[in-house]
Amino acid sequence: MIYETRVYRCLPGRLPALLKRFETVTLKLWDKHGIRQAGFFTTLVGESNQELTYLLAWESLAEREKKWTAFVNDPEWITARAKTEEDGQIVLNIVNQLLVPTAFSAVK
Fold this sequence. Notes:
By secondary structure, this protein is α+β, with helices and mostly antiparallel strands. It has one domain (2-99): Alpha-Beta Plaits. The chain contains 3 helices and 4 strands. The protein has helices spanning 15-33, 61-72, 75-84, and strands at residues 2-10, 36-42, 51-58, 91-99. A 4-stranded antiparallel β-sheet has the order 2-3-1-4. Strand 2 (36-42) and strand 3 (51-58) form a beta hairpin. The protein is globular. InterPro entries: Dimeric_a/b-barrel (IPR011008), NIPSNAP (IPR012577). This is NIPSNAP family containing protein. Residues 3-105 form the NIPSNAP domain.
């Protein structure tokens, strides 16, 4: 397995809009494209409380490429994303990493 960690850093006060978009739009589209999430987190203690961190689980880099590309190019996503940003940009930046579990990891 390959895990992808993604951290969305929101513009001030825009985290609720991002959470709503994931809950009402993004997750349904991920289901459509077979994208599996492994957890979502907000920051309780840390540098910023305007961040959303989540993990995705992939069988391979090829699976990620195929499914992620299909998702980001899905006309339904493009339209929904634009609609959710009618009141302004939500995300300042995104940081992601692709991770592989170690031999001793509880998550494989």
